[in-house]
Amino acid sequence: MEEAKSLLEIIKSFLYEKECNIDNDIDEIKLYKLARANSISNFLQKWSQKNCKSEKIKDNIYKDYCEQIVKDTNQEIETEKILNALDKNNIKTLVVKGTIMKNIYPQNYMRKMCDIDILVDKGDFKKASQIIENMGYNKFYNHEKHIVFTKQPLIMIEMHRMLILKRDVGYEYFKNVWSLCEKYKKYKNIYQLNKEDAYIFCILHMLIHFKFTGITIKDMLDVYLYNEKYKDNLDYKKIDEVFCNLGLKEFENNIKEIAYKWFDKEQVDDFNEVEEYILRGESNKNKVNYDLSESEGKLNYIKKLLFPKLDIMKEKYPVLKKAPALLPVMWCSRIFKDIFTKAIPLKTRVDTIRMIKEADKEEIKKVKDIYNKLGI
Q1: ω into residue 308 within 30 of 0, thus cis?
Q2: Considering the chain, what is the average pLDDT of its residues?
Q3: How confident is the model at residue 182 (pLDDT cuts 50, 70, 90)?
Q4: What's CA 38's distance to the chain center, in Å?
Q5: 349 near 320, Cβ under 8 Å?
Q6: What pLDDT score does 237 carry?
Q7: What is the pLDDT of residues 258-305, one digit of tens each?
Q8: Is 94 helix (H, G, I), strand (E, B) or coil?
Q9: Quick check: 201 pLDDT over 60?
Q10: Which is it for strands 93-96 and 138-142: parallel, antiparallel or unpaired?
Q11: How far is CA 154 from CA 70, 162, 251, 283, in A?
């Protein structure tokens, strides 16, 4: 994991504006691939100009860096346009995730965002959807939690109905989300979570991602920078109480401990099993192994994948709340729709089935041990 140690040192050299002291013989291809897998290749730009021996890798890093600046600029412009339009139409809107988190970075553009995340009050959801479509966006995918809109080039919006699904930890806490908010910038109808609840949501969102495909160095950097920026202004008593009530205090402690080990000023000498798992980055294989560890055999997992329980199906098909007898019909509808959905290609679904069949018992056990060590 020498490349991981070097990558963390490069990030810290940027954060602390200091010289980067890493091995000159580092494998630059592995270093670049690791940075790309963890959504932080733009952090390599300054280091690469002075130290990168491979012109190809140096060019790739510069290309990533320029693309990130262009994407960030476009996202900034589009975010302002969208928020202005929603605010003008008196639509109560919550700005979350990357748009908020990027403000904790030394330079905003360094924090990559896949999409622009907003939550809209239920009563205005249809009206807000129409406003966004009128701005040139196309509806890409309709999920039970959010609608995804896209616009070329490089812009994607997730408009949420809820922050957390009913089946996930923290749903009840964020159910009445507007009581946890404060005004965002100059707007009358646009909000952000208060500082404590923004951090609580950050950890809960990490937990969901951890179970879904895994988390990245970028996620750990969010935790470190957020605590560093607001450590004198956060009500840690409230934060601790919430995590204790949710049964996630151990998870938050472990994540925070790793984040500080990686990004505080001391050099990292080694990584434990949990850290190595995180450093491997996101992968659908992580989800398969975790889900298999929670299921009783591969066949049972495939059944749950194809035929979710009624409580889960109700989130996507509200008709089941009044007519639960329609569950078999909705199962068939779901399978048919998912085969042809644009958001998740059929190949991805076939690959998931293949990974389930090929899953190794020892690897499943190893993943379960990692989750136990993290306090999940």
Answers
A1: no
A2: 87
A3: very high
A4: 11
A5: no
A6: 97
A7: 999 999 978 888 899 999 988 887 777 777 777 777 666 677 777 777
A8: strand
A9: yes
A10: unpaired
A11: 9, 24, 34, 22
Residue 41 and residue 319 in contact, taking contact as beta carbons nearer than 8 Å: no
Distance CA 38, CA 281 (A): 6
- In the chain, the N- to C-terminal Cα span, in Å, equals 25
What's the CA gap between 180 and 94, in Å, rounded? 11
CA dist., res. 63 & res. 218, Å (int): 19
The per-residue pLDDT for range 135-180, each reduced to its tens digit, is: 999 988 777 788 999 998 779 999 999 999 888 899 999 999 999 9
To 5 degrees, how large is the angle CA 11–CA 218–CA 376? 130
Structure tokens at 302: 């495939």
Structure token digits, residue 32 = 């670049």
Nearest Cα to Cα of residue 283 among 110, 44, 38: 38
Beta pairing, strands 116-120 & 155-160: parallel
The answer, yes or no, to whether residue 5 has pLDDT greater than 60, is yes
Under DSSP, the state recorded for 268 is P
Per-residue pLDDT band for 339 (boundaries 50, 70, 90) equals low
Token duo for residue 154: 């490089």
Is 70 exceeded by the pLDDT of residue 344? no
Name the strand (E) or helix (H) holding 119: strand 116-120
For residue 28, the SS3 value is helix
Q: Which residue has the tokens 């908020």?
A: 100
104 CA to centre of own chain = 16
Helix ranges (DSSP H) in the chain? 2-15, 28-37, 45-51, 55-88, 98-101, 125-134, 195-212, 217-230, 236-246, 249-263, 273-279, 284-294, 298-306, 310-316, 319-322, 327-340, 346-358, 361-374
Q: Tell me which amino acid residue 269 is.
A: D
According to the model, what pLDDT value does residue 341 have?
59
